[in-house]
Amino acid sequence: MEGHNSTFDEVTKRGMKRVSPNPNYYQDIISLLLAIDDINKNPDLLPNITVGYQVYDSCMEPSLAIRNILQILSGPGEMVPNYSCGDYGKVIGFIADRSLVTTLPLAQFLSSYGFSQISYGATDPVLNDRTLYPYHFSTGLNDDVQHIAIAELVERLGWTWVVILAPGDDHGERESKNLRNEINKHGACVDFIGTLTEDTNTNIRTLERIQTSTAEIVVLCGRLFPTESLISLVETMIKDKTLVIPQTWLHIYSYLLFNGSLLFYNENNWCYERNESIPYELTVKEDILFKDLFLFSYRCVTHDKEKDDLFQQVYGTVFYNCSSLKIPFWSHNPNYQVYRAATGLAHAEHLMLSSSGKSYNKDIHKYIHRKQLHRYLRNVRFTEPCGTEINFNELNKSPVKYRIVTWPIYFNSKIKQIPVGEYLWSDSGSSLKIDIQNIFWKKNTNNQILKSQCSPKCPPGYRKVTRERAPPCCYDCARCSEGEISNLTDMENCLKCPIYEWPNIKKTMCIEKETEFLSYKDDSLTLVFTVLSVVSILFVTVKIGIFISFRDTPLVKANNRNLSFILLFSIKLSFLSVFLFLGCPSDITCILRQTSFGISFSIAISSVLAKTIMVCIAFKATKPDSLWRNWLKVQLAHCIVVVCSFIQFLISSIWLTISPPFMEHNILSEPGKIIIQCNEGSVIAFYIVLSYMGLLASVSFIVAFLARTLPDSFNEAKYITFSMLLFCSVWITMIPAYLSTKGKYMVAVEIFAIISSSCGLLFCIFLPKCYIIIFKPNRNRKQYLLGNNK
């Protein structure tokens, strides 16, 4: 004999107690009856034994559930609280209950008597503790799997901000916390956990908070046994929210609550057709509960006028005659867990009897050791009628299949159940299939997935910035810093680009950095400097040609034509050195650019200095018996040029030997650019070269300034003075400008200084002479130079 404790809906309204049979709960009884019928018809299972049953209603009251157990154990008649009498040997185990509220105290009570108990609904993990509850087993679905399924659905649909609504009991608190943890693992956040209690005011405050929440999704969890007033309150206050409803809430018949929601229910291997009527042998005409079931579910009269009138008065609704209607009973998923529990209990009994070696007879119950049955339940393995292999000790690890459906209510009040996906779970993994196009949303989303987010997603190019004292899903979006990108939405941190790459404008990808140098292709500065250098070289060439053509004229001779040619060629070399600064630098050009410019300019300034000194000596030597005449006989001018130029050559040689310049890629000076430049190697050597040229220019300026009072015809000191003044001014202003600029503009400053100072020498010293030679030939005569203008 099997004891069965079942739960029916209990509703309280206005102080009047009303019992409302629920079709799902009644199907628990039908599932038990079908299991008992199949067991007794199976000749290979418990031969010569007929399995019976007793069914009691616990009404979700722990005390009543315990009383029912004692009544079963005491037998017919008065209940014996201490279980001291009665023929209890025929009871092999109990199938109880759907609710944790009654299952937990039953497990504690039955364990003390050694009776095995199989729960078909309560799945709290605390019952899995074999130390505390060695006699308890469960065929119910694993709540953890359902939590994982819901969390994966939330993640798949891109929801990151949800509300959890659960009953206010201990089980609801544990389940809601476990569900929140699972949702958090999948990257979403829970705004808050609302609880439904027996206090209406508390429930109203909870539902008002859900109304004002920015979360569009409300996830239900736990196992609620609500009153009609509570369901009506929930329907009214959160009708605009989309609900995710688990298997444990499907016993609530509320189409308005289910409208536009997503429902999970277990896809079991029930072998009976869902649309078939209940077998006649299981539903006799005297089944009053069955009649009441149709009365409540389908508003069918019972032909008991007194009862019909009472119920119509209490419930305020009209009942109809359903005798001519064929009403399918399997309109919802039957409770296969009850069928599996009864079958498992029978197989355990069969295994125990087989192992005991006793023969089957009418007194077989004497040999049943109830305290041993749980050991056999752990080892029960059997194949169900639909072919599913069952290992009772590993039911929590059995594969689970959930169907996901939506129930839209159309304008014509037609209700249609639409499958939108399925979820499969097993030890080897899980899979979620969802057909987004078939989901019916309460709000108009333009065929897009309903959004439920605390903060909008940060697009590529931005990163998340967590708000202070806010959940991780509530954040602000900040633009990626310089040199960083984000190529995905909602990135926690931006990615730094490699050293030779830089973000694009949107900061969504790294691209090659722009290279910067004075390019011949697309740089206007290069074009300007090229034109200026070429024109200046042409001017120098023309002047060299003029001086060569008129090399025997008094003016050219009087200005020391050899030094003039050296000066012109050195100036030309200075202009040519500009091209070493243009284009993409290389190690060779880096080595040549500063040294060639420094040496050529030193030769030029040395020539100017030699010319000035020779002019001074020439006028000093005009006096009789002057010692300066001896200096005129020595090649003093050439010696000055050679010595001064050699010193610069020696400085440059030491520089190139110790620390020569080289080409480098500067990636730090300007963000987003690679400056291809020349590293001077030794900055000290570079400034020594400039300082030495400054020293020569200063000496030349001083000597020229002192020689400015000599006769005008032979004196070019004033032109030299002006050219050296221009040279010093250019280079003195160039140094701070050179230090304050970067990249190609630093090179441009140096090129400008070279061209300017070279042009100063060229035009200040040679332009007046060329003007006289070409346009004033009468002044290019010896008599004019000697002061005889007649």
From TrEMBL:
Q: What would be one Gene Ontology cellular-component term for the protein?
A: plasma membrane
UniProt source species: Xenopus laevis
The family database entries (Gene3D superfamilies) matched by this protein are listed as: 3.40.50.2300, GPCR, family 3, nine cysteines domain
**Where does the record place it?**
Cell membrane
List the keywords (alphabetical). Cell membrane, G-protein coupled receptor, Glycoprotein, Membrane, Receptor, Signal, Transducer, Transmembrane, Transmembrane helix
Q: Where are the transmembrane segments?
A: 527-550, 562-583, 595-619, 631-658, 684-707, 719-739, 751-774
Indicate where this protein is primarily found.
membrane
Query: Which superkingdom heads the taxonomic lineage of this protein's source?
Result: Eukaryota
Name of the protein this chain belongs to: Vomeronasal type-2 receptor 26
Query: What CDD domains has UniProt attached to this entry?
Result: 7tmC_V2R_pheromone
Kindly list the organism's lineage.
Eukaryota, Metazoa, Chordata, Craniata, Vertebrata
Keyword Transmembrane helix on entry: yes
A Pfam family matched in the record: 7tm_3
Indicate the segments forming the G-protein coupled receptors family 3 profile domain, all copies: 525-780
